[in-house]
Amino acid sequence: MNNLKFILLLCPFFVFAQINEVEQDTIKDRYIIIEGDSIHKTAIDLGEVRLLHKLRFNSREERIQYLILRRKTLKVYPYAKLAAERLDSMNTRLAQITRTREKKRYTKRVQKYIESEFSEELKKFSRTEGQILVKLIHRQTGKTAFDLVSDLRSGWRAFWYNTTASMFDISLKKEFDPEHEKEDYFIEDILQRNFQSGRLERQKSALKFDFYDLTNKWIYNKENAKY
Prior knowledge:
Residues 1-17 form the signal peptide. The protein is built from nine helices and two strands. By secondary structure, it is mainly α. The protein has one domain. A two-stranded antiparallel ribbon has the order 1-2. The protein is elongated and about 55 Å long. The model is unreliable at 12-30 (pLDDT under 50).
């Protein structure tokens, strides 16, 4: 699983800023203040709520496959989310560094730190969990794991890592494609349900697709109903 580990190794260490919480005045909770004037609120601000369809399975085997996929997706999603966050942080930090040597030194230092933090954990992933992780990295970053390696190192190293991954039935070039792969739709379904329940912390996908259109295609279209 060294190839999967590499994606997280090149992402920067979080810098936490202390945030002082300010207690809100109860009057401001009931009024909207506009340039010194106040307007009484007539509605309560609510977060976005998605109305999800009831799960339906064509057979007991299909239900079991979904439950297995759910367990694996819940396990690997936090790592894909972390990869997206650290990639964004790293790009921000590297944009502030002008000298190539300093950029390489920074990346190498972060790599060593993250390796000691996540190496043993990622080794516990199975082949299918590793492939789901690759798909979710594409969902969260908009780039395949192969492309990320190419960007952060060299095309030759990307080729080598992909070849090594293929030996374990894992392709770093694999994309998250819920429009054409029903399993990927089910992965998205699992994410949406667990975002809504609060079990997973929501992170917006870097890819554009309409979950409800996909539901109509995969669940309510009889031609695509079989898993």
